Structure formats: structure tokens, C-alpha cells
Amino acid sequence: MFYTMRCTLAWHFEQGGVPAKAYPYLSAAGRRLYDQSFVPEALDVYERARMIEPDAREYLTLEEADRRLADLHLLRGRALFHMGRWSGAGESLAKADEFARLVGDDHLKSQTATELGTYYRFLHQFQEATAHFTEALTLAERVGDPRLRPIALHGLGAVNWADGDLDQSRHYMLEGLSVAG
After folding, report:
1. Are 4 and 28 in contact (CB under 8 A)?
2. Residue 29 to residues 2, 40, 116, 147: CA-CA distances in angstroms?
3. Helix axes 86-103, 106-122, angle to 10 degrees
4. Which run of H or of E encompasses 177?
5. Dihedrals phi, psi of 178, to nearest 5 degrees
6. How many whole angstroms separate alpha carbon 100 and alpha carbon 35?
């Protein structure tokens, strides 16, 4: 129901020539689909949002447009990663990080750093992954949002495990579990 309502509203706004109204509905619908494990469908919705973003941007403040674009690239990068489309995921996550830095939103920068850390960990580029996870953790602590910490801590634990530092890995994993609650 949620998907149908949001996508239907987005479609009507698209047909009515109001992309600034369609854009957030598409992002929300895609997020909901992804959360329900409908990843290919979510990616289709993200692509629709990406296509109308330049038109929607005209009706938003520059900061809000960049923030929404960073979020869209982050969501799209996650979906592409989940589907095994690595190069597209890396490009989208890098764009998300670029816009998050442009906006200067530490919460969003922490999210993009975490996703980039996961991406590089998967590619066995452990130094790059460690740098991103460490940045994500620093930003999460600066923001004070405990929800941002567990994934970064888990990522650092996984990287240390892969490097053979089991004591440090255990430390990060246990801290991640205690924070996750």
C-alpha cells in the first residue's frame, strides 16, 4: 500500500509537471521498497528520481537539493551494492560522499563514510575501508547519534579480522554490540 500510494502520487506529480513534488515521493517509495527487500524495484524508483532530479532541483534551495541528491546517491549505491553491481555502487557512493561534504552535514557524511567503508572492505581494500570506518565513527561521535556507531564498529572489527588482528577485531565487535544495545 505504501509503495503504491507514494509511487502513484509521484507519477501524478510527474505527469502534472511538478517534479519537485514527485522527487521526495520517489525517494520515500524507493527507501520503503529497499527496506522490504524489494531491491530491484527500489533501484527502478531511484532511477526515476535521478532522472527528474535536475528539474526538481530548480524548485529547491541549493543546500536542500544537494542534501537530497546525496541521500539519493547513498540509497542508490546501497541498492547497487546489494545487487552486485560494484562499479555503479562505488560511483554512486562516491557521489553521495561528495555532496554530503559539500553540504557539510556530519550525519550524512557518517552514513556515506560507513557505506564506502563497507564497499572497500568487500573489495579487500582494507586501508581504504579502515579510513572510511574510522571517519564514520568520528563523525557519529561528533553528531551524538548512537545509531550511526554500530555498523562502523562492526566494519572496523571485520577489517581487523581480515587483517588477522583478532584482539582488536573482538574489541570493535563487542563495542558495536554494546552500543547496538
Report:
1. no
2. 7, 13, 24, 22
3. 160
4. helix 166-180
5. -70, -35
6. 22
- Amino acid, res. 49: A
Q: Give the Cα separation of 134 and 88 in Å (integer).
A: 24
Closest CA to 70 of 40, 88, 50, 51: 50
Query: Residues 142-168: pLDDT tens digits?
Result: 999 989 999 999 999 999 999 999 999
Q: Give the closest residue to 79 by CA, choosing from 108, 47, 53.
A: 47
Cα angle 52, 58, 59; round to 5: 100
Q: How far apart are CA 27 and CA 4, in angstroms?
A: 13
State residue 14's pLDDT score.
83
Task: Name residues of the chain where pLDDT drops below 70.
Answer: 1-4
